[in-house]
Each structure stands twice: as structure tokens, then as C-alpha cells.
Write a structure and sequence with these properties.
There is one protein chain. The chain is an alpha/beta fold and 235 residues long. The chain has 2 domains: 4-168, Peptidoglycan recognition protein-like (Lysozyme-like), CATH 3.40.80; 181-233, no CATH class. It is 19% helix and 27% strand. Strands 1-5-4-7-3-8 form a 6-stranded mixed sheet, with helices on both faces. The chain has a 3-stranded antiparallel sheet with strand order 9-10-11, with no helix packed on it. Strand 4 and strand 5 form a beta hairpin. Helix 3 packs across helix 5.
């Protein structure tokens, strides 16, 4: 299922002047927490910046600010050859914190998959040397070095392997559960259905039954259970 793209037009763009796209670039917004807030900043001509798209925690939805055929203003000298996404997060986030935003990561992965299809690019993480050379694929803003503005986003703990695996498999955004939950006990029937005791944040315990591996809970190799929506391992 294609991502829903909310159009919030930015005036901050220009022509690619004939350059072809070879890089899919991931950034962090470093302040804006929603695609709407991010769009408001990009709509300000005096900001002098923009990105093609942005992603927050809304499942299956991204903001779109500059059409892909145009050049967004966010990667310095590399703007002509890039399509870009700003994640509503921070480069200082730990890997654990990133996994507390599963919808954002899934939206990023789905966007990467769509752009890779649009431009026939490999879903491959490039090194800094490759990104600054002539290679084609996916990179972070940090990989563009001084020519890209000297930034360090999306940060050293961004879960690249997880996101790119999602992109390659045709990522579908994972709904955020309505309550923080943790599996405290589980059994699995012969037909593969899991009966899981779930402790909710108010201290109550409920039981759910679901198929594996298609449900939101996943059984780890050590026999514990993990909630994919939050990444919380069971006790």
C-alpha cells in the first residue's frame, strides 16, 4: 500500500538543471515533532531551507514539501542529485529511542522503497566515500561531509539495517499500540496460535490470542516475547 503524502508546498526549491537523482538521503529535523510543524518552517521563505518529504509517528503518512523533480535545499552541494526525508527526531537519539518510534521508521522505510523504485536505485547503504563520489543508493546527511553542510544526522545510532531491511521487504507502517504493554507469560498452541498474558500500564493483565508470525508479538530465539510496535522485550 502506497504512503499517504500530505502536500505542504514550500517555496524554497529550484531546478535540478538536468542532474539525475542518485542519492536517497535521510535527515533528522532537530526540533519539529510533526510533519505539519516541519512544513510550516519550510513554508517560510526566509528560512531558506526545505526537504522533499518529512515523517513523524503517523502510520502510513508523510509530508511532501518539494516535488521530486525539483531540487530541495537541504544537502548543500549535493542538492541536485538527492531526494530527501526529514525525520521528526534527533541525531542524538539512541537506537532504543529510535525503536520507540516504529511508525516513523516504517514510514522512512516505505519512502525509501518508493523513491528507489521511482529512480531505479539500489536500497544499499553507501559509505561516505561512495556518497560523495558517484555511487547510487541510500545515505545519511552525515555521509555528505563538508560539501553537504557538515551535519551529523541522522546520528550514529540510527538503525540503518532495520530500516533498509524493511524497505527491501516492502515496509508497511506498524500501528502504534494504544497503551504501553509488556508480555509477562505466553504459550503457543500446536496450531501456531499464541496465548499471551499482557500487562498494561495501569497494572491490569489481559490475555490475547493471535497468529504467529503475523501478529504484533514476536517470539525471540530465547523464548521471550517482544512487542514489535514498541520493541519492549518481555520479562
Amino acid at each position: 500500500m502506497a504512503l499517504k503524502r500530505i502536500w505542504i508546498a514550500s517555496p524554497n526549491y529550484s531546478s535540478r538543471a538536468g542532474s539525475g537523482v542518485r542519492l536517497i538521503v535521510v535527515h533528522t529535523a532537530e526540533g519539529a515533532t510533526t510533519i505539519e510543524n516541519l512544513g510550516s518552517w519550510f513554508q517560510n521563505p526566509s528560512s531558506g531551507v526545505s526537504s522533499h518529504t518529512g515523517a513523524d509517528d503517523k502510520p502510513g503518512t508523510i509530508g511532501e514539501y518539494v516535488r521530486p523533480e525539483n531540487k530541495a535545499w537541504t544537502q548543500g552541494n549535493y542538492n541536485p542529485v538527492c531526494v530527501s526525508i526529514e525525520l521528526c527526531g534527533f541525531a542524538s537519539w539512541s537506537t532504543d529511542e529510535w525503536h520507540r518510534h516504529p511508525n516513523m521508521l516504517a514510514n522512512c522505510a516505505a519512502w525509501i522503497a518508493e523513491e528507489a523504485g521511482r529512480y531505479q536505485l539500489p536500497i544499499t547503504k553507501l559509505t561516505s566515500a561512495q556518497a560523495q563520489g558517484s555511487s547510487r543508493g541510500v545515505c545519511g546527511h552525515v555521509d555528505l561531509g563538508a560539501g553537504g553542510g557538515g551535519h551529523w544526522d541522522p546520528g550514529p545510532d540510527f538503525p540503518w539495517d532495520y530500516v533498509l531491511d524493511l524497505a527491501r521487504s516492502g515496509a508497511q507502517p506498524t500501528p502504534t499500540p494504544p497503551e504501553d504493554t509488556m508480555a509477562i507469560a505466553a504459550t503457543q498452541n500446536a496450531d501456531g496460535r499464541a496465548i499471551i498474558a499482557v500487562e498494561t500500564k495501569d497494572g491490569s493483565v489481559k490475555h490475547i490470542e493471535q497468529n504467529k508470525p503475523n501478529g504484533d508479538w514476536w517470539k525471540n530465539a530465547d523464548g521471550s516475547w517482544k512487542w514489535l510496535g514498541l520493541g519492549n522485550p518481555s520479562k
